[in-house]
Amino acid sequence: MKRACVIGAGFGGLALAIRLQSSGIATTVVEARDKPGGRAYYWEREGFTFDAGPTVITDPDCLKELWRLSGHDIAEDIELMPVSPFYRMNWPDGTNFDYSNDEAALRREIARIAPDDIAGYESFFEYSSAVYQEGYIKLGHVPFLDFSSMLKAAPALARHQAFRSVYSMVSSFVDNEKLREAFSFHTLLVGGNPMTASSIYALIHKLEKEGGVWWAKGGTNRLVAAMVKHFERLGGVVRLHDPVLHIHTLGDRVTEVETASGWQERFDAVASNADVMHSYRDLLGASPRGAQMARKLARKRWSPSLFVVHFGVEGSWPGIPHHMILFGPRYKGLLEDIYEHGVLPQDFSIYLHHPTVTDPSMAPPGKSSFYALIPVAHLAKLPIDWEQIGPMIEKRVLDEVGRRLIPDIHDRIVTKFHYAPRDFALDLNAYHGSAFSLEPILTQSAWFRVHNRDDKIKNLYFVGAGTHPGAGIPGVVGGAKATAKLMLEDLR
Ligand SMILES: Cc1cc2nc3c(=O)[nH]c(=O)nc-3n(C[C@H](O)[C@H](O)[C@H](O)COP(=O)(O)OP(=O)(O)OC[C@H]3O[C@@H](n4cnc5c(N)ncnc54)[C@H](O)[C@@H]3O)c2cc1C
Questions:
Q1: Which atom of ligand 1 is nearest to the CA of 191?
Q2: What is the Cα–Cα distance from 134 to 141, expressed in whole angstroms?
Q3: d(CA 308, CA 416)
């Protein structure tokens, strides 16, 4: 039986491990932290459950497929619950915009804000559907190993004007600024600046409408636990709390994986789900290839980090939907501050997560759990002492949520803590504390991203946000399909 090692138990690593184990490869997942999930880690405090990262589950089919491979059903291990509206967007002037895949309701919402933009929205939806077909269905799980694969995709990219930004494309269809923001902010969910990310990312709109927005009962952490349970049921092995220190190579082959505890094993193939810079610079640092790739990656653009305030409050809030975007007074200027200038702005836009409105099990009876997230520049652009500044930003974020939604928020708080860029760097080995790895811009997409198989070390593979197609659960789970295909062909 051939043996494979997957370094890292993020969504991409677990999806890859399930695919390999389902195909008869004896697979071991080695994870540095005490719990699996990576960005989808979680904490339990005073009866509240706080998911650290992903909360919007889209394209549930890409997850269901991981169970179907071996004749199982995802429902054996996890319940997925629909979320509606998908998001409520809110602006400082009090305007709300509810967005869902109920066509009639969505049109009513658009008409309420800008009736003249309905026809433009229809055209935008057609555009989004076309790029979804091309960029997600056709190319979302294809490995771009050589430049010719990029050339093959070029005519479609040109036809869809992939050189334009999402915001510019949306603006060519709708005139109202609020609607422009509402239909372009999605790239932020995968680390992209709507002003510079390729218009191909407009596919997220169709992706959400096609597959819906879902919530895993008990939290995203339960979905991670379900993936682990399924993997172990198939015979896979998960080794937690044991960071990999070295990937040993001999010539153009990986030979062994060595961890901090002294565990060292030989494998036929090794895939890293860890941060791509950490993998090349630290784990492969002893090989010339590791140093060469680390130099190359250091010149790339890295996506921003995030500052997340987790809090549990007294009371129930049926009027606050599960997902809210609280836009600030600026859009373009705020994005420039985060992506270009690396300053900590006075204003911010908040993504507010309120799981207890869908799933009361996330908090003790009569209480609610939330997280409020703001994008912030990564550590290289904004080298501030987050330990010192964190409490102040936490208060400002909570003040803003209080001002717009929960007036006596500070009196109601039962427990709270925050997660800052420094934590991403220390807990996840994330380069510059980036929350989404390499920034998703056209010149860092597909072949220009880290390849699913290393060009020089033949049995070394990558999976996760740093590879094609990029961050987000559907992205890394689709990427795992591409990596698994390569590994299975090579191991045959
Ligand atoms: C706050 C937040 C909210 C998000 N919201 C959403 C959302 O709503 N919907 C969505 O689809 N996406 C969302 N995303 C994006 C999504 O969570 C990520 O893109 C995705 O989970 C990344 O998966 P990954 O496979 O790249 O692995 P990661 O989650 O990055 O995991 C990598 C793993 O490798 C481990 N590792 C690192 N170094 C070592 C080592 N030396 N040895 C062993 N293990 C190691 C790490 O501990 C980690 O567990 C969000 C991200 C964040 C941060």
A1: 15
A2: 11
A3: 11
Could you give the C-alpha distances from 192 to 187, 232, 438, in angstroms and in order?
5, 35, 9
117-137: pLDDT as tens digits: 999 999 999 999 999 998 899
Cβ(463)–Cβ(6) below 8 Å:
yes
CB 391 within 8 A of CB 385: no
Closest listed residue to residue 55, CA positions, set 187, 217, 210: 217
Predicted confidence at residue 322, as pLDDT, reads 98
Neighbours of 408 (CB within 10 A): 11
Q: Is the CB of 60 under 6 A from ligand 1?
A: no
| Bridge partners (DSSP) listed for residue 459 | none
Gap between the Cα atoms of 161 and 199, Å rounded:
7
* Ligand 1 center–CA 11 separation, angstroms: 7
Substitution site in 14, 16, 39 for ligand 1 pocket (most atoms within 8 Å of beta carbon): 39
**274 alpha carbon – ligand 1 mean position (Å):** 9
Chain centroid to Cα 349, Å, comes to: 18
Which residue lies with its CA nearest to atom 38 of ligand 1?
A: 274
